[in-house]
Amino acid sequence: MDDAVKTMEAADIAAVLKMLPHRYPFLMVDRVVDMHGDDRGIGIKNVTINEPHFMGHFPENPVFPGVLMIEGMAQTAGVLCIANLRLKKPKSVFFLTIDNAKFRKPVLPGDTLEYHMRKSAHRRNMWWYAGIAKVGGDIVAEAKVGAMIVDA
User: Fold this and answer.
1) Mean per-residue pLDDT for 84-89?
2) pTM for this entry
3) How far apart are CA 100 and CA 134, in angstroms?
4) In this structure, is the dihedral angle defined by the CA atoms of residues 9, 14, 16 and 18, taken in order, positive or negative?
5) Do the Cβ atoms of 135 and 63 come closer than 8 Å?
6) Per the residue annotation, which of 22, 36, 53, 57 is the catalytic one?
């Protein structure tokens, strides 16, 4: 297995691409830093104006869609799980639950989103995380997400 996938401290974009099946335009995390096994970590998403969802959300006032922040939280949690399992072959990660989602402030092009994820439970091939999305230290969204990992 690749050294980029083995590390428990961080996952750059190359490692993220090896762990997750998502690709542009639906990859919502650029890297994961400050990884502590599958217990916690921080995903980073650099929001840019050239992303396709800004053509319709909203052309005169571009706002990063809240549902994509939740997806970024889940993708960050997926990287934590897959990196911790040290899997040799790709797996698929599927949502189980999204609970208590709250959106506090708009996220705009030029912002750097941080997805702070903390594991709340794990059973067999299922994990649950509590997440907080921040921009510049301010909370912009929060949610609890659950997912399962299955063979690809």
Assistant:
1) 76
2) 0.92
3) 16
4) negative
5) no
6) 57
